[in-house]
From TrEMBL:
GO cellular component: cytosol
GO molecular function: metal ion binding; molybdopterin molybdotransferase activity
Cofactor(s), names only, from the UniProt record: Mg(2+)
One Pfam family it belongs to: MoeA_C
Pathway(s) served: Cofactor biosynthesis; molybdopterin biosynthesis
SMART domains found in the cross-reference section: MoCF_biosynth
Gene Ontology biological process terms in this record: Mo-molybdopterin cofactor biosynthetic process
SUPFAM superfamilies: MoeA C-terminal domain-like (SSF63867), MoeA N-terminal region -like (SSF63882), Molybdenum cofactor biosynthesis proteins (SSF53218)
Domain MoaB/Mog per the UniProt entry, residue ranges: 170-307
Ribonucleoprotein is among the record's keywords: no
Top enzyme class: transferase
Protein name: Molybdopterin molybdenumtransferase
Catalytic activity: adenylyl-molybdopterin + molybdate = Mo-molybdopterin + AMP + H(+)
């Protein structure tokens, strides 16, 4: 058994870039940019009024000033701007070069074509040309694109972007006991829940998952399914990872040429995790217990997908205050399902007493994994501990 840290390094080492694609900006939400987008223009492209009011020279204040024209957004004023003049101006309009400030209309008294200004204040209310970004600036955020990023890239005058292709993730659940949700279980059968959950986690991390038909517990069935995973960047199997007579994933994958990075790590739940490369795909063999599979996917599959996309792999650890005493840990990192609640400074974390790795309901009630390292000594209520948000 290797440590969780060593396993993580080996899994991240399996990451290969899935290549790039050029897509319309509208479709780029949540995608990872492949290279910096470069501003095609300067923004604002001209000195622009930040207020509705009057553009003028500070030296002419408090007036009276003569109104010689109007400028609105999209309708610049191109006339003369002699000393003692002002123009009516609206937010977003270009400010003529001879004027150095805009005053808000609220502090202006107007009488016909003449204005006077009381207490103009410090703020000149002009957004200078290029104060947001300049032509030629590159933008490459270290995270998936957010709605505001799409706005920024649009403002850079770019209708399309080059992003990393979503890694294709083949999700393969297997076991003679499994049937699909909605079918009627015969004695001894259970509903297959894992592949849906794992595929959803793959999608949440930025991948394009596809779920393969269920495999039976035979080498032949598993080989057929692996053949259907052709073209995947990552193959994720679920179940059949342990040591029982029907646990065939490792044997079949190795027969097909899988180069194993490791098998088994010092972690609870999730000990029988397997990782390696199979042809041009990375492969993860998750344990079948539903909570084990999901915890392994959170700690290894999602980081691997994000690493393929050139993003920080995560997940990020945070600190909380323990609400009850805990006994010493054994020789594996233990990821306790737990509930968070607001504390005075840090949040408080309450690990469940039942940590059964088959109980999905408990996982649904959890909002965090309390992460205790192998050989962690006994902990008292009030101590600071580490967690992963779910
Ligand atoms: N002698 C030992 N037995 C076991 C060990 C061990 O070290 N020595 N490890 C245990 C641990 S830890 C885990 S985790 C499980 C993992 O075993 P497998 O990966 O081989 O998983 P299966 O045996 O196929 O299934 C385990 C459990 O999960 C249910 N399951 C499987 N697939 C699905 C699915 N797609 N949807 C819902 N439920 C699924 C399956 O019916 C079993 O109940 O091994 C322990 N045993
Ligand atoms: O490690 Mo198993 O994944 O404890 O249930």
């Amino acid at each position: 058994m290797i440590t969780v840290d060593d396993a993580r390094a080996l899994v991240l080492g399996l990451a290969r870039s899935p290549g790039t694609e050029d897509i319309p900006l509208y479709d780029a939400l949540g995608r990872a940019l492949a290279s910096p987008v470069v501003a095609q223009l300067t923004q604002p492209p001209f000195d622009a009024s930040a207020m509705d009011g009057y553009a003028l020279r500070s030296a002419d204040l408090p007036g009276p000033l003569r109104v010689v024209g109007t400028a609105a957004a999209g309708q610049p004023y191109t006339g003369a701007t002699p000393p003692g003049s002002t123009i009516r101006i609206f937010t977003g309009a270009p400010v003529p070069a001879d004027y150095d400030r805009v005053v808000m209309q609220e502090i202006v008294s107007r009488d016909g074509d003449t204005i006077t200004v009381t207490n103009a204040g410090e703020n000149r209310h002009i957004r200078r040309q290029g104060n947001d970004f300049r032509k030629g600036c590159g933008f490459l955020p270290d995270r998936p694109l957010r709605p505001s990023d799409l706005g920024l890239i649009a403002a850079m005058n770019l209708p399309r972007v080059t992003v990393l292709r979503r890694p294709r993730v083949a999700v393969l659940a297997g076991g003679d006991e499994l049937i699909r949700p909605g079918a009627e279980p015969a004695p001894g059968q259970i509903i297959n829940s894992n592949d849906l959950a794992i595929a959803a986690m793959a999608r949440a991390a930025g991948a394009d998952p596809f779920i393969l038909p269920l495999a039976r517990d035979t080498e032949e069935s598993l080989r057929d399914r692996f053949a259907e995973a052709e073209g995947a960047d990552l193959i994720v199997t679920i179940g059949g990872a342990s040591v029982g007579d029907h646990d065939l994933i490792g044997k079949v994958a190795e027969g097909l040429g899988m180069q194993r990075a490791f098998y088994k790590l010092a972690m609870r739940p999730g000990k029988p995790l397997m990782a390696g490369r199979l042809g041009r795909a990375a492969m993860l063999g998750l344990p079948g217990n539903p909570v084990s599979a999901i915890v392994c996917a959170k700690l290894f599959m999602q980081p691997l997908i994000r690493a393929m996309l050139g993003l920080p792999p995560g997940p990020d650890l945070a600190q909380a205050v323990l609400t009850r005493d805990l006994p010493p840990e054994g020789d594996r990192q233990h990821n306790h399902r737990a509930k968070l609640r607001p504390g005075t400074g840090l949040p408080e974390i309450n690990p469940f007493t039942d940590q059964d790795s088959a109980r999905l309901w408990l996982l649904a009630e959890a909002d965090a994994l309390l992460v205790r390292p192998a050989h962690d000594p006994a902990r008292k209520a009030g101590e600071q501990v580490t967690f992963l948000a779910l």
